[in-house]
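pipeline stage [seq->struct] | target=ATP-binding protein | organism=Thermophilibacter gallinarum | residues=423
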Amino acid sequence: MFSPFRDASGAPKRLADVTWDDLPQLADLDEGFVLEFKREYNASVQRKIPKIVASFANSRGGWLVIGVADDTHAVCPVPRQQADFGQIIGELCRRHVSPAPPFDVRFVADPADDTRGVVVVRVEEGDFPPYIADGVVEIREGSTSGPATGAALVELYGKATGRRREIAEFGHRTVFYPETDAYGRPLPLFDLYLYRMGRDRDAASREEVAEHVRAMRSAFAQQRATCHVSHAHDSLILRTTLPTGPGDAHSAIELFGDESMKLTVPAVLLDAARRERAVARMRELGLFSAEEGRLIDACATLRRVSRMASLLDRYVRLRGIAWQEYAVSYELENMAGIILWSDSPVYQDYVAEKGVLSCGTTDCRSRVRYLDDGAHDSFRARQFAGSHFFEACGLPLGSQDPRDEALVDALLSTSTGRRRDEA
């Protein structure tokens, strides 16, 4: 996206990196399709802000700078408000614009007098237009905003439909895994899809890719895990263990140039000896009478899922990304009928009364959640992946039944240990 600010090498600056010394760069720029100036911050400007923000979000994004004259481009600092400008403008847009447009706000203080400064608002091109300000669909028309025509409205709705289709297609990305497990049956996998919104889908530069790899290697190192990187045609595949061949299955993170991500985690199947003991125990409980059932280690699989998702949390922190920029969904592949098993006496008492826990549906793809909806401000990939994996496999999360609560506590408490060989 266009930026009116450049660093010493001429590269576009992010809003977070803009300083007071960068403001003179605006003297060489005119208001236009992606840039608008306001000399003052007054009641008239307040009324116009939702319209301007919506018009940028409906177009190609843009920058609103308050405290710069629109005729001479001179810096005219405005007084700092008691409340943060981000909160003020955020509240204006919440009251007047629907849906919520993607934007960020920064008050750049005058070093000589921090009671005044310039307000810089950076608006992203929206993913799901039209953005409606006080009942009107505003778009950019040259250097101003105006109501959209019929053709423009059709284009805006088409863009929103196309973006939803892109997200759905992203949810079908597949990292190569051997088709069968050691028993010759389809390999059970947990997939977590994290699609980054509002990004340019063009290929990332070599420098950007190198920075992404450095951050991911650092995230792996913080978790005391090695990081093995391989290249796909449009992504990177990162694993904690170097596969010895195509039949060797390990957890994988697929990382794209726009920093969308897919996490794939194979379930931990019981080895032959432990499976035999589990089958014998279930027969004692009157639960199991055939040899064909597939059992996974509930606690070890949750450890593996949570550990790998933690790497994603570390990565976004290192990169300074907000989870609110993502849409998230998950899928359980080849999990239908898979039985959760635990050696915990609490688990065995529970299943003796209520039956085994298993993934009871064949369609295990979740709906897409958009993390900028205000309901996911505390989102963490680790908690989301762990809880939804267990929930999809039949664990009664959120139940008010004390027996259900005791089961959840028992399984979660026995899955908190870390084993480096479970990735």
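stage status: PASS
auto-comment: The chain has a mean pLDDT of 87. The domain at 15-165 is CATH 3.30.950.30 (Methyltransferase, Cobalt-precorrin-4 Transmethylase; Domain 2).
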